[in-house]
Design a protein that fits this description.
By secondary structure, the chain is of the alpha/beta class. It has a single domain, classed as Rossmann fold. Helix content is 47%, strand content 14%. The chain has eight helices and seven strands, in the order βαβαβαβαβααβααβ. A seven-stranded parallel sheet has the order 3-2-1-4-5-6-7, sandwiched between helices. Helix 1 packs across helix 8, helix 3 packs parallel to helix 4 and helix 4 runs parallel beside helix 6.
Length: 244
């Protein structure tokens, strides 16, 4: 029986690549989106036309009613969720002195409250089945901090702490919880960087390139496999050697 994966923020960037990778490998894929309806529907159509099982579901992961809708869809469609990938996120480049309370609240809500809501919805089911995998997408900036991204770095650091704590709590129930902390990846989130900044990041990376979304998707796929059953509570950072 094929396993089902739910990916939040799956319409673009890393989330999209994760959805594609899981679909190609035979998983039943449900991916959530909030505002990127055009991209989400295009991806759904592309995957289904290729014979894969993939469904896009709109919803705000910071809203409990939307979370219930998303998880009810998964249960009705496939009977439940075996793997949860908490990928949804936002970014913003601002000096600390310019970050507003609204900026701070939105950053924390999307990354931390959204992840909390999704885990609250799925963990009881995983405990009952005595199996499941949760993968949280953080960032190297949650490990080392980034100038002009204090709120983003804080939120991503919170994801790392959440992962480590939840892994210890759910380990006895045979549920693996891990964190991927990507380096600088070629996605829309780099839109605020100048070409000079991008070149500087690339040249400062030992592998002399920025990451691709597929670099992250391949790791997420491995952590979801039976081969990764003894891996939990870990923070793995595919970053080309930028941070060691």
């Amino acid at each position: 029986m094929n396993k089902t994966v739910l990916i939040t923020g799956g319409a673009k960037g890393i989330g999209r690549s994760i959805a594609e990778e899981f679909a190609i490998k035979g998983y039943q894929v449900i991916f959530n989106y909030y505002q990127s309806e055009t991209e989400a529907k295009e991806l759904e159509q592309s995957l289904t036309k290729s014979g894969f099982k993939a469904f896009a579901v709109q919803g705000d992961i910071t809203d409990k009613d939307d979370i219930e809708k998303i998880f009810s869809f998964a249960k009705n469609k496939f009977g439940g969720i075996d793997i949860l990938v908490n990928n949804a996120g936002i970014s913003q480049f601002k000096l600390f002195t310019e970050i507003s309370e609204e900026d701070w609240d939105l950053m924390i809500n999307v990354h931390l409250k959204g992840m909390f809501n999704c885990c609250k919805a799925i963990v009881p089911e995983m405990i009952a089945k005595k199996q499941g995998k949760i993968i949280n997408i953080a960032s190297i900036w949650g490990m080392v901090g980034a100038s002009c991204e204090v709120h983003y770095s804080t939120a991503k650091a919170g994801i790392i702490g959440f992962t480590k704590a939840l892994a210890k709590e759910l380990g006895p129930s045979n549920i693996q919880v891990n964190c991927i902390s990507p380096g600088v990846i070629e996605t829309d989130m780099l839109g605020g960087l100048s070409e000079i900044d991008r070149c500087s990041l690339r040249d400062g990376t030992p592998l002399l390139r920025l990451g691709k979304p597929k670099d992250i998707a391949s790791l997420a796929l491995y952590l979801s496999s039976d081969e990764a059953d003894f891996i939990t509570g870990q923070v793995i950072s595919p970053n080309g050697g930028l941070v060691i």
